[in-house]
Design brief:
two-stranded antiparallel sheet; binds uridine-5'-diphosphate; alpha/beta; nine-stranded mixed β-sheet; Carbamate kinase
Length: 240
């Protein structure tokens, strides 16, 4: 247990993580793979809150670009995150991890309502709290939900899982000469418009001095490496 550098973290998984190599939907093999990695750190004693995205199913902004009312699309996006949360709950339970899905949009039959104090209690008991439906408000993203939940649940860091190794100066999937940053400040991210999280999420993390560790979810063992202090990915913090 002593090798952990955090006692409680907020892990942000984008919807893409659930789609695996496909662009859309839920790939059970990917869910199973990262569930195993989460289970390993939970067994080490780490308290984990999860925020799940919905981009593998529905994004409000994309729908509004095609003419749908933005808020209507955003509510659909939030509902998509609930489906993802249930899929991740299934994956984690198969690994023997105790979980609770807590939704910002009340859906009593499949989840608990999100109640901060109750979420903290679940974490203290070693249950993974899967936060669904983002912030419950349109015009936000699940990245902002991650920064919000991390702050109010007194997490020590946001672990932002992506499909690349960290934060680069340009898109590494398009530019072979892209350079990986190891450390950045919040202001660096905002002023250089680096693709880490949206600006609302970064500002919230900055205001609460919440470090963000960006790492590759598909690199085997990376979650454990991040929480035990191995040098992976990019850390965003400080700079004031
Ligand atoms: N969403 C929202 N409010 C929130 C969180 C999410 O309206 O607090 C909607 C929004 O339409 C968003 C969609 O849910 O596009 C899916 O979330 P997101 O795009 O953040 O998922 P990710 O990119 O992480 O897969």
């Amino acid at each position: 247990m002593s090798e952990l550098r955090f006692s409680r973290v907020l892990l942000k998984l984008s919807g893409e993580a659930l789609a695996g190599t496909k662009k859309f939907g839920i790939d059970p093999e990917s869910v199973s793979a990262f569930s195993k990695e989460i289970a390993e750190v939970v067994r080490m004693g780490l308290q984990v809150a999860l925020v799940i995205g919905g981009g593998n199913i529905f994004r409000g902004m994309a729908a509004s670009a095609k003419g749908m009312d933005r808020a209507q699309g955003d509510y659909m996006g939030m509902l998509a995150t609930v489906m993802n949360a249930l899929a991740v709950q299934d994956g984690l339970e198969k690994e023997g991890v105790q979980t609770r899905v807590m939704s910002a949009i009340t859906m009593r039959e499949v989840s608990e309502p999100y109640i901060r104090r109750r979420a903290v209690r679940h974490l203290e008991k070693g249950r993974v709290v899967i936060c669904a439906a983002g912030t419950g408000n349109p015009y936000f993203t699940t990245d902002t939900a991650a920064a919000l939940r991390a702050a109010e649940l007194h997490c020590e860091a946001i672990l932002k899982a992506t499909k690349v190794d960290g934060v680069y100066d340009k898109d590494p999937e398009k530019h072979a000469d892209a350079t990986l940053f190891r450390n950045l400040t919040y202001i660096d991210v905002l002023s250089r418009r680096l693709q880490v999280m949206d600006s609302t999420a970064i500002s919230l993390a900055m205001d609460n001095q919440m470090p963000i560790c960006v790492f590759n979810l598909f690199g085997s063992g990376n979650i454990k490496k991040v929480v035990t202090g191995e040098d992976v990915g990019t850390t965003v913090q400080g700079g004031e």
